[in-house]
């Protein structure tokens, strides 16, 4: 094998664009061949390419930060279990161990070793959130990880082109809707195959014997770009705390505490003071914490950063072991996004103290709301369906928050039509919630509300996961909070935290996601923006008068201090 010489900048950019395109082809294949709505429609997945040493080269444009940020650890564990010299062409590896991967069993990683010129060249890796991984359905009260589903250590799903039937039978026997689960695994294999073909074609077209030299150059370039972006932050320190509405066994609110230290082109994050892990399924393993600790800086300072291993180097983390952000095995973590997303709020609070123009107000988009429905349908077949819909982002100092988006998870809201095809439910309505975005000079994003009715003849088991049911997203600089969320079945008392229940035919449930916090004094909001919000139905006339101090005429004109808009 000849020694690869460094690539000139133009050739490097061309190859990088090709790599990114191959990663996107993997994602497209996964979406188009997946069986479940949560992968095909919600796009709850990540796709990445690696060199033979386990260095991330590229990830697809559509990825969830938590899954994408966990794939490096998975590939390293796969190489530790099966060193490069033991891998064969036709091998396919699988793992869903929460402490190796993305923190809970439904996130299943499938990696395909790529061979070129008789040697290992790299890996194509996909992670998909599966419809089920066994365990108790929607175990919102799980006490350890064993209640949350089957754990697959790093294993060979295929050996040299031969299917491992024993492992397939084990999976099929331990999950609900096995045709969906195994179908999605097949989709991951197909997507990886497309990625492997793309990498081999790239190496042929650019006369590359190996990818390690390329990996070094592109990751160094990304690292340099990220460090330059981080240099926009003033050097210094800031401390931020977030107190969650969820409490531990002693009734104490869970706390995320972070100390941000900004150096030239680098940040250090110390999570000392964060609450100890709890016997509730909300603990977030270190991989997830790291992913959502890096993400806010990229989203705020350089959203177009080419994503690869270089993006993780300038952010240094210390997270004490045994805390809710770095639990020890076998802590439960099925609903870790109920807590891990608030890492973003804690970091935005710290960023606000050092660079207030860059920070976002707290959002109603976290935690992630995920509703599960399972039962036996009219045709006698089992069904298991997910429904995702989210709240409003917090405002910035110079703009309103976005409404009804999944942030920071970066997945899509479930299609009403597809959900109704898959589950015996009728969605009566889904709409934005007026007046739910916190009033401010810039308004928080609106939450949304879904009302649905059970049509099934037999009882349906439900598991409802959501948050900000007690305490809303706060505003910044005298702005108001967003409106809190609501989960309710029938006319029963609304939930005060995630939980389980049963729905009978004709029962109605309601999910109302919270709005984001505002930014700045509401009295300083531009009357033209208030008039626009009134016209679009984002704000009612009563709220405009109460929160913004304006008068609204019958024709919709807005007056403040006698001046009309």
TrEMBL record:
<feature type="domain" description="Hydantoinase B/oxoprolinase">
    <location>
        <begin position="8"/>
        <end position="522"/>
    </location>
</feature>
<dbReference type="InterPro" id="IPR045079">
    <property type="entry name" value="Oxoprolinase-like"/>
</dbReference>
<dbReference type="InterPro" id="IPR003692">
    <property type="entry name" value="Hydantoinase_B"/>
</dbReference>
<dbReference type="GO" id="GO:0017168">
    <property type="term" value="F:5-oxoprolinase (ATP-hydrolyzing) activity"/>
</dbReference>
<dbReference type="GO" id="GO:0005829">
    <property type="term" value="C:cytosol"/>
</dbReference>
<dbReference type="GO" id="GO:0006749">
    <property type="term" value="P:glutathione metabolic process"/>
</dbReference>
<protein>
    <submittedName>
        <fullName>N-methylhydantoinase B</fullName>
    </submittedName>
</protein>
<dbReference type="Pfam" id="PF02538">
    <property type="entry name" value="Hydantoinase_B"/>
</dbReference>
């Amino acid at each position: 094998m000849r020694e690869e010489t460094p690539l000139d900048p133009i050739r490097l950019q061309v190859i990088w664009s090709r790599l990114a395109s191959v990663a996107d082809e993997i994602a497209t294949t996964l979406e188009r061949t997946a069986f479940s709505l949560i992968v095909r429609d919600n796009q709850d997945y990540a796709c990445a390419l690696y060199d033979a040493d386990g260095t991330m080269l590229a990830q697809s444009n559509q990825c969830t930060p938590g899954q994408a940020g966990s794939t490096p650890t998975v590939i390293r564990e796969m190489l530790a279990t099966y060193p490069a010299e033991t891998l064969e062409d036709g091998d396919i590896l699988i793992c869903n161990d929460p402490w190796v991967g993305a923190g809970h069993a439904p996130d299943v990683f499938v990696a395909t070793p790529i061979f070129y010129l008789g040697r290992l060249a790299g890996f194509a890796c996909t992670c998909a959130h599966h419809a089920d991984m066994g365990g108790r359905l929607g175990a919102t009260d799980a006490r350890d990880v064993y209640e949350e589903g089957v754990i697959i250590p790093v294993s060979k799903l295929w050996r040299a082109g031969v299917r491992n039937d024993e492992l397939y039978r084990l999976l099929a026997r331990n999950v609900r809707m096995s045709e969906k689960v195994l179908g999605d695994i097949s989709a991951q294999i197909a997507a990886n195959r497309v990625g492997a073909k793309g990498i081999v074609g790239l190496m042929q077209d650019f006369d590359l014997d190996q990818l390690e030299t390329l990996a070094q150059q592109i990751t160094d370039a990304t690292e340099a770009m990220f460090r330059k972006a981080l240099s926009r932050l003033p050097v210094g320190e800031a401390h931020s705390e977030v107190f969650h509405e969820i409490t531990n066994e002693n009734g104490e609110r869970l706390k995320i505490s972070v100390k941000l230290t900004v150096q030239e082109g680098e940040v250090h994050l110390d999570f000392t003071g964060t609450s100890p892990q709890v016997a509730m399924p909300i603990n977030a393993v270190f991989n997830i914490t790291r992913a959502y600790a890096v993400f806010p800086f990229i989203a705020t300072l350089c959203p177009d950063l080419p994503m690869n291993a270089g993006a993780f180097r300038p952010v240094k983390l210390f997270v004490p072991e045994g805390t809710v952000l770095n639990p020890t095995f076998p802590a439960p973590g099925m609903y870790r996004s109920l807590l891990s997303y608030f890492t973003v709020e804690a970091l935005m609070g710290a960023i606000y103290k050092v660079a207030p123009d860059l920070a976002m107000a707290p959002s109603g988009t976290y935690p992630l709301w995920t509703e599960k429905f399972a039962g036996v349908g009219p045709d006698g077949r089992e069904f298991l369906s997910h429904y995702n819909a989210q709240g409003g982002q917090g405002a910035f100092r110079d703009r309103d928050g976005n409404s009804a988006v999944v942030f920071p998870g970066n997945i899509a809201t479930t299609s009403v039509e597809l959900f109704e095809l898959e589950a015996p439910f009728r969605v009566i309505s889904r709409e934005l919630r007026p007046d739910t975005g916190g009033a401010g000079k810039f308004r928080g994003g609106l939450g949304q509300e879904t009302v649905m009715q059970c049509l099934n003849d037999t009882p349906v088991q439900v598991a409802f996961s959501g948050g900000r049911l007690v305490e809303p997203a706060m505003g910044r600089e005298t702005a108001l909070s967003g409106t809190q969320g609501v989960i309710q079945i029938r006319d029963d008392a609304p939930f005060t935290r995630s939980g389980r229940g049963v729905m009978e035919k004709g029962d109605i449930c309601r999910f109302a996601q919270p709005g984001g916090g505002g930014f700045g004094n509401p009295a300083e909001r531009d009357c033209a923006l208030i008039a626009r919000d009134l016209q679009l139905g984002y704000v009612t006339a009563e709220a405009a008068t109460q929160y913004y101090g304006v008068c609204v005429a019958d024709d919709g004109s807005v007056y403040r201090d006698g001046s009309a808009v």
